[in-house]
């Protein structure tokens, strides 16, 4: 904001000086035309820069998709907003690497803001079991998962689904879709809870003697873009 104030203050001061010189007669029409011709030349030479500055200002103060400290996803990378300037924004990636984006470039990208999303976070775990697994064991798997989620009401919503997605090479690909009782901003806590869930699935598979091929946590795909609320779709395979 201070940089923007300085920019507008400079423009206003230049205009005031020109008007004052015209009023007192120190600036002739010929001299004014010369100045205007130089301004036109400058606009021609630096027009693209001026366009970028204008787009950056609109993005920063009108669109305003994030604030310092917000956790965002840009180009599939999750980052925290560290600094905001007129022309650039600095992000801090999960490995503490700083990434600088021109605001004019950010204005063209979809931005997911975890902090501004008030809905609970959906998640998914995909796994493959032997296609010859008895129906009774699959029913046991579903009921045990249900009991586990209901036993942790502060971590998980009881609403969930366990579905068969497809069968391939004697493998039955299944997906567990759950909802965290947590806001998007608490990403580290979300990772810990999902890790506990995967370990619980492993325990259930061993207890029920269900042969599995892999258990792979799926990344959450966020559709929230510069909005106060968001609906996050389940991952599509």
Automatic annotation (TrEMBL):
Keywords: Ion channel, Ion transport, Membrane, Transmembrane, Transmembrane helix, Transport
Species, as recorded: Citrus x changshan-huyou
Membrane spanning residue stretches: 7-26, 32-50
Main location: membrane
Family matches, as InterPro entries: LSM_dom_sf (IPR010920), MscS-like_plants/fungi (IPR016688), MscS_beta-dom_sf (IPR023408), MscS_channel_2nd (IPR006685)
Pfam families tied to this protein: MS_channel_2nd
Mechanosensitive ion channel MscS domain residues: 49-114
Protein name: Mechanosensitive ion channel MscS domain-containing protein
Membrane topology: Multi-pass membrane protein
Cellular component, GO, one term: plasma membrane
Cellular location(s): Membrane
PANTHER family assigned to the protein according to its UniProt record, in alphabetical order: MECHANOSENSITIVE ION CHANNEL PROTEIN, MECHANOSENSITIVE ION CHANNEL PROTEIN 5
GO MF terms, alphabetically ordered: mechanosensitive monoatomic ion channel activity
Family affiliation: Belongs to the MscS (TC 1.A.23) family.
GO biological process: detection of mechanical stimulus; monoatomic anion transport
